[in-house]
Amino acid sequence: MDVIQPVTWSADGHGVRILDQRELPEREVYRDLRTVDEVYEAILRLAVRGAPAIGIAAAMGVTLALDGTEADRFEVGKKIRDAAARIGGARPTAVNLSWALGRMGRAIVEHRGDPAQLHAALIDEATRILIEDKEMCHRIGEHGARLIRNGARVLTHCNAGALATGGLGTALAAIYVAAEQGKKVEVYADETRPLLQGSRLTAWELSRAGIPVTVLIDSAAASLMKDGEIDLVIVGADRIAANGDTANKIGTYALAIAAKHHGIPFYVAAPESTFDSATKTGENILIEQRNADEVRNGFGALTAPAKASVYNPAFDVTPAQLITAIISDRGIHTPPFQFP
């Protein structure tokens, strides 16, 4: 399978190359980010998105604070700390962002001394985060594929595929691996309003992979379940609290309620790095509020009065009791959830 690479090093090794997801599905455009500010803006503006991919981009972005500069070890430490603080403020809900920056911070402590050696160590750490994510995605796919029977009809929300990670994805990894095993799988992808990550991104990458996909408006999902057209739901996650409460793209909570009502298994797929043991329950998860114009004027046409108030949270929290199981690179976790 030709796996999409949404985040990697630029060809010259002095930048971060991203697939600009704002351009999809119309155009496949790659951009090289050369500064910390460019990485911050790419994450903030959703040019790169998906919790694992954000973490990878953040780790790589921190190294740009030192690229081509000469500084003593005290200045180096400040540059890295400033870069991490800047990038870390772009998307507060995705725990992979702080997780990856934490790893880069520990690499600084472990490699104090010569700035050139520290720069090399940071590049090596960021590269390891990318490689590990690829491996984790495949393990998630192997575990998740066990839950998908031949002929299954799977509903998903937002994009938790290769575009959101360094590998096969999380929720979509299970689908890709099941397809590799010879199972026939049909996917229903919610549009995912207001920015349409489901129709623009998930449908694009599944079509590219040759997997049958049907796009539906978000509000049609419950009706599709009622009609017996869905066998299971698999979604991704941006943060999973210690008790299993899960933050994911806005609209996920409603899907979980509908799935519970119709007796349909509801699965969350995410790497271990998405588990946040410091956050006890979903009530403690900070939910990002995004710009009102994403709703009023998201794709160039006014779809609400210009001065109308807008409620535009990027995520919602699905309580653990609505989740059938959580699929991670460690296996399939069933209730009661307790992640140390």
Plain-language structure description:
The protein is an alpha/beta fold and 340 residues long. The protein folds into two domains: 7-138, translation initiation factor eif-2b, domain 1 (Four Helix Bundle (Hemerythrin (Met), subunit A), Up-down Bundle), CATH 1.20.120; 142-333, Rossmann fold, CATH 3.40.50.10470. Helix content is 37%, strand content 16%. The chain has ten helices and 14 strands. It has helices spanning 36-44, 51-63, 73-88, 95-110, 115-145, 171-180, 197-208, 221-226, 252-261, 293-296; strands at residues 7-9, 16-19, 30-33, 152-156, 185-190, 213-216, 232-235, 239-241, 246-249, 266-269, 275-276, 315-318, 325-328, 331-333. The strands form three sheets. Strands 6-5-4-7-10-13-14 form a seven-stranded mixed β-sheet, with helices on both faces. Strand 4 (152-156), helix 6 and strand 5 form a beta-alpha-beta unit. Helix 2 (51-63) runs antiparallel to helix 3 (73-88). The longest helix is centred in the middle third of the chain and has 31 residues, at 115-145. The radius of gyration is 20 Å and the shape is globular. The two termini are 35 Å apart.
